[in-house]
């Protein structure tokens, strides 16, 4: 590994995940055992669940702060805090949200009779609450697996033909069946921006998925090219790096900047980048988050057909063409994470108030992303007090970006509700205005998000080179690249 002038704080380039294995095993095993105690409402089990929460949180935080656990690259190491966050959110859901008992299972019914095997006539089913299985039964094991693994709305992928789901999916499944019944259509005919969820369908068709994946890859390649030291000149409004490898295609990007700017890699501050470049980096980071996973899901559905359709729900729902900011965050972005934020929001006072709940959800979103960079924010050797850990896990740029999304949704909702009836009839103009507002709220505060990433030196040639096939192969062998 060559030494860089701009190197991540205390970066370790030799993978070692062995210290993470016992902690992860204990936390996940403990949570799975607690799932067996649900939906028991007895006081003893409730106290066991409540007492388990702080212990699981303290254990999982070691995945965030202990630098002995590493994947050999500071950007790859973000996977460890993500795992810790997932454990903490699941613990909050099992130990606190469902402390009084729950969630209750739901099953499909046809003509008031329980269906034990779902067919393709989805419109005929109605999901209803059923009694939980007894503690000492195989059914309780399956129920515990469902509570432990289910995160998206829909039915369980374990023995999927049974159509098992949990009570928080009741409305989504019944609305979907009712839509199919009233419109006499099949799941593939539901419009992309319908009011019901599109179970069993990819976010994008095959060719669209390929195109968006190519866009994300090319954009990331552009960031990778800029992370290498190169001389940049402005000729006819184009940036042309002198690096021969990237000069051929990078010159096609119409990014106007000041003349004869020298970039020695990506700077440590977003505010040192020319505005067009900064906005393009914001778009690239956001695109990498949503385009690559959704494209991968779309491609996987070419060889895997989910049966029943309710066992699959795309993680994204065309966020690029979302009709507004509120719809983007409520339906189009990360279906796998929404329950996590709602569970964490319920821990704060007044969370039943919709306005406060919205604020809490985005606050926890910012905390999650701050946790991902905590080990880079806390210098090595620092005594880990409560104040130190809290400061490391609340990144102003990350939290600020997500709180801006909450404010943006408030403004969008208030303006739309205040519009005169005659203005609301101008649906095309209203739709264009809402989309323009959505992209403005994403791009402008997104500069704070990118600034936090650049501060942690996560966009350098050494870091980005860690995602080449050779580097990933070496990681699996426990070797530095």
From TrEMBL:
It is found in: Membrane. GO terms for molecular function: O-acyltransferase activity. It is a multi-pass membrane protein. Residues 315-379 form the Wax synthase domain. It comes from the Eukaryota. The chain crosses the membrane at residues 20-40, 47-66, 78-99, 204-223, 278-304, 436-454. GO terms for biological process: lipid metabolic process. GO terms for cellular component: membrane. Pathway: Secondary metabolite biosynthesis. Keywords: Membrane, Transferase, Transmembrane, Transmembrane helix. Belongs to the wax synthase family. This is Wax synthase domain-containing protein. It comes from Pseudozyma antarctica (Yeast).
């Amino acid at each position: 590994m060559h030494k860089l002038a701009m190197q991540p704080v205390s970066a370790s380039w030799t993978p070692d995940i062995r210290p993470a294995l016992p902690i992860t095993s204990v936390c996940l095993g403990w949570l799975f055992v607690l799932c067996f105690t649900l939906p028991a409402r007895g006081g003893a089990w409730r106290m066991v669940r409540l007492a388990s929460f702080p212990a699981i949180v303290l254990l999982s935080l070691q995945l965030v702060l202990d630098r002995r656990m590493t994947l050999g690259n500071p950007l790859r190491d973000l996977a460890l805090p993500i795992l810790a966050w997932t454990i903490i959110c699941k613990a909050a859901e099992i130990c606190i949200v469902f402390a009084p008992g729950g969630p209750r299972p739901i099953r499909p019914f046809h003509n008031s009779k329980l269906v034990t095997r779902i067919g393709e006539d989805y419109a005929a089913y109605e999901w209803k609450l059923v009694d939980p299985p007894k503690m000492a039964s195989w059914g309780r094991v399956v129920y515990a697996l469902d509570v432990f693994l289910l995160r998206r709305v829909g039915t369980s992928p374990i023995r999927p033909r049974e159509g098992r789901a949990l009570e928080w999916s009741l409305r989504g499944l019944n609305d979907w069946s009712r839509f199919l019944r009233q419109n006499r259509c099949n799941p593939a005919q539901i419009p992309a921006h319908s009011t019901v969820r599109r179970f069993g369908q990819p976010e994008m068709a095959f060719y669209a998925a390929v195109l968006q994946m190519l866009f994300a890859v090319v954009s990331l390649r552009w960031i990778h090219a800029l992370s290498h030291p190169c001389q940049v000149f402005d000729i006819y409004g184009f940036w042309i790096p002198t690096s021969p490898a990237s000069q051929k295609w990078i010159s096609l990007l119409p990014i106007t900047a000041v003349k004869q700017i020298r970039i020695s890699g990506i700077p440590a501050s977003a505010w040192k980048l020319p505005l067009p470049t900064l906005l393009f980096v914001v778009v690239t980071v956001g695109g990498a988050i949503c385009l690559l996973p959704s494209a991968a899901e779309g491609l996987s559905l070419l060889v895997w057909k989910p049966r029943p359709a309710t066992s699959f729900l795309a993680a994204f729902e065309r966020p690029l063409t979302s009709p507004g900011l509120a719809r983007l965050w409520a339906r189009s972005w990360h279906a796998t994470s929404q329950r996590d934020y709602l569970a964490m929001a319920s821990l704060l006072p007044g969370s039943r108030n919709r306005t406060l709940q919205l604020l809490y959800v985005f606050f926890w979103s910012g905390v999650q992303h701050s946790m991902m960079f905590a080990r880079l924010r806390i210098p090595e050797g620092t005594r880990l007090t409560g104040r130190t850990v809290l400061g490391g896990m609340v990144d102003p740029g990350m939290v600020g970006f997500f709180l801006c999304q909450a404010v943006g949704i408030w403004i969008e909702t208030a303006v739309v509700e205040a519009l005169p009836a005659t203005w609301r009839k101008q649906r095309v103009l209203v739709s264009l205005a809402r989309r323009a507002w959505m992209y403005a709220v994403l791009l402008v505060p997104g500069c704070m998000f990118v600034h936090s990433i650049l501060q942690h030196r996560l966009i350098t040639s050494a870091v980005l080179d860690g995602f080449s096939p050779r580097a990933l192969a070496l990681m699996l062998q426990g070797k530095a690249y």
